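Hi U.,

Before I forget, here's the chain from the pilot set. I'm dumping it here mostly so it's searchable later in email.
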Amino acid sequence: MSSRVGERGQITIEKAIREQLAIYAGDEAVQRVVDGRIVIDIVPGRHARSLAGVLREHVGRWPADESWEALRAAAWDSPDPAWDVAPEGHDGPPE
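Structure:
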């Protein structure tokens, strides 16, 4: 398959190739020259769907007051599974 280079240096990737390699609009084409040839690597673009709220069912509780001080105190009161015992010198929130 061949494509003609347009006035602005653009080419079109044939539909069969796009489908075979799962190339979609919004993907990033990283171009480089290797041994006098163009090599194009396709990097998937960012997804269009928001991930906001996907962990909502896993959140145990929300502090009633969302001020910085209340959030900080709630974080210190929440158990951290990585710590069996608080590290030395860390008995609670700093004053």
